[in-house]
Amino acid sequence: MKKGFTALELVIAICFVGVAVFFFLMQKATIDAYARDDHNKTAINAMYYALEDVYHFTYGYYPEALTEEALRGADPLYTVDNAGNFVNSVGSALHYEPENCTDAKCESYVLRATLEKETDFVKRSRN
Predict the structure, then answer these.
(1) What is the pTM of this model?
(2) What is the domain partition of the chain in residue ranges?
């Protein structure tokens, strides 16, 4: 009697491995999307605290536009989205919306992250 696998057994094994790889890749894509969402939520929180605890504390108002100077209290890693786009740049998932501005001095703002697996993450100014 010969030892080995039949063609049918090999086909079944290859199909099983193919299905397992397919499910692995689907799960990996979902996990990666949640990780990107977590990064963007962390970025919004970092910018929020930089604006509140550094910028507003120092100047008494909020900026009309976000710049690296306005976010000097935040880690530069968290001033960009997953694709490396700075807040409000074309294609960025991170948005700063100033409100009630006069002479480039704003009374309030909204920070928003567009997420893949959840609804938008929004933080509003304290004041």
Answers:
(1) 0.80
(2) 7-124
